[in-house]
């Protein structure tokens, strides 16, 4: 299977997603959006992964490539590619599907519980997950659930944590791909956002020391990606 990912910051790579792809022997390619690299043909991949980033989906004036990226994501969804969006990636999927994206009441940064909705608990993507689980967050925006999508999770700070659209598109506001290294990079690069008196912002040392959570989210990620792979895993060969 061929996986293509869109990266928006030098320090926000796909983390454990790359580990999964390597274990499953899938081919991986990428577009560094912050370097204005050209987008590939939608025919060039089977799964699209859209990573996070510090920009907002409505900041096209500052980041003009966002306009083309949203059109590209919409095209991939309409072509029934497997599509996974994380944080900014989830917001881009929501925007591409016509939903509003806007500032959340609170910034949510750190490890905070996420709870599955009734549809989330019965979803084939996360039906084996705990009803409530610890997830890593780093976002200030949120999105409405697109028309025709299924609302699948929420947290105290953010009502819409995830949704599914059709059979192959999953949008997660939280970071399921995080590793100790990726969290440390975010803390180093975005330390200015860690304002201690704000709601739902965890101290940096607590974020980096939450070691028991990483194996659990890695297991959830692998289950999710294995399920996303199934509808398209036919006729594709692994790497030699």
Topology:
Layout (H helix, E strand, L loop, with lengths): L1 E6 L8 H8 L3 E6 L14 E4 L14 H14 L3 E5 L1 H9 L4 E16 L1 H5 L9 E12 L6 E5 L7 E4 L3 E4 L7 H10 L14 H5 L4 H17 L11
Parallel strand pairs: 1-2, 1-3, 3-4, 4-9
Antiparallel strand pairs: 5-6, 5-7, 7-8, 8-9
Helix pairs in contact: 2-3
What does this entry look like structurally?
This protein has a nine-stranded mixed sheet, with helices on both faces. Helices cover 28% and strands 26% of the residues. Residues 233-240 have low confidence and may be disordered. It has one domain (2-232): Rossmann fold (3-Layer(aba) Sandwich). The protein has 240 residues and is an alpha/beta fold. It starts with a strand and ends in an 11-residue tail after the last helix. The protein is globular, with a radius of gyration of 17 Å.
Q: What is the name of the CATH architecture?
A: 3-Layer(aba) Sandwich
Helix content: 25-40%
What is the CATH class? Alpha Beta
What overall form do the CA principal axes indicate? Answer: globular
* Beta-strand residue fraction: 25-35%
Would you count the extended β strands for me?
9
Count of DSSP H/I helices = 7
Task: Please give the order of strands in the largest beta sheet.
Answer: 2-1-3-4-9-8-7-5-6
Q: Structural class from helices and strands?
A: alpha/beta
Give a short overview.
This protein has 240 residues and is an alpha/beta fold.
Relevant terms:
single chain; 240 residues; alpha/beta; Rossmann fold; nine-stranded mixed sheet; 7 helices; 28% helix; disordered C terminus
